[in-house]
Structures are given as C-alpha cells and as structure tokens.
Specification:
This protein has 61 residues and is mostly helical. Helix content is 69%, strand content 0%. The protein has one domain.
C-alpha cells in the first residue's frame, strides 16, 4: 500500500510500480468501503489511462 501512496503522491513513476504486487493487492481487497480499496481504486484510475496512451503510441508509430 505504501507504494500506491507514493505513486499517487507522484514520488514514484508508473514504471517503478510492481504490477504483480498490485494485482495481488487487488485480489485481496473485497470491501469497497475500506481505505485500502479506495487507494487501489485511485491508483488504477491513474494507471489505466497511462497504459492506454502508451499502447496507442505503440500502435500508431
């Protein structure tokens, strides 16, 4: 969770996130009212558009 907080605070970049750890964290979160779930949701809302933008750049090179 600390890594997610650092990402949201823009102290680490997308490339520094451990995606395997992020996936495992997501599998464990099943309470949408928990702070951890919200942190994960905020992180994913920032990560997904960045990956989509990278994919578009790759496709349209």
């Amino acid at each position: 969770m600390q890594q997610l907080q650092l990402f949201l605070q823009e102290k680490i970049s997308l490339d520094e996130l451990d995606l395997d750890q992020l996936i495992e964290c997501a599998k464990q979160q099943n309470n949408p009212d928990s702070p951890e779930y919200r942190l994960l949701e905020l992180t994913l809302n920032q990560i997904l558009p960045q990956y989509l933008e990278r994919a578009k750049k790759y496709i349209y090179q």
